[in-house]
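Reviewers of the previous submission asked for a worked example of the structure-prediction workflow described in the proposal, so we include one complete record here. The input consisted solely of the amino acid sequence. No template or homolog information was supplied to the procedure at any stage.
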Amino acid sequence: RDSDRSLDIFDEKSHPLTREEVPDDYYKHDPDHKHIYRFVRTLFSAAQLTAECAIVTLVYLERLLTYAEIDICPSNWKRIVLGAILLASKVWDDQAVWNVDYCQILKDITVEDMNEMERHFLELLQFNINVPASVYAKYYFDLRSLADDNNLSFLLEPLSKERAQKLEAISRLCEDKYKDLSKAAMRRSFSADNLVGIRRSNAILS
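From that input alone, the workflow returned the following structure tokens.
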């Protein structure tokens, strides 16, 4: 990266994810891939998310960077990734993980902070959370090519026609519901936990 354009809502110094003190030079040190992997793996494992959800996460993450014209940098990458996972899990999984469930995984973050971050993420995406099957397929094959180029196994199968149709339908439904919530001018901390038709997961922590 050549720049570090960011927003306060994603800054880990302003909105820490843990009680550990954030070093003064936190914005200077890029995380290595193992550190990023551990962070993502912890969320996916504890919330029992699927590999397909990771592809939707990547769609939202790159969409945010384009729409909001910001960069991923050491100071914001965790909260940006968390926000993308949060939305993707609600759109992809039949049994969505609620914001309060992530607070059980990241025990020092508050529900209010999660709701606020989700609201900002949605506004920056201009509420565009629809994921057509063609977009999913593009990311899927790009990732598979990347794995092949690096001699890595890629066991994930392409979406079936039925699952592709379901993804499009659910993402359109969620997009409409989010827009309705925004138009209704709900309280500042509104979240998609209030969406009709999305069920709470019974078991979150392993």
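Residues 5 and 100 are 29 Å apart (CA to CA). We consider this example representative of the routine output the project will generate in years two and three.
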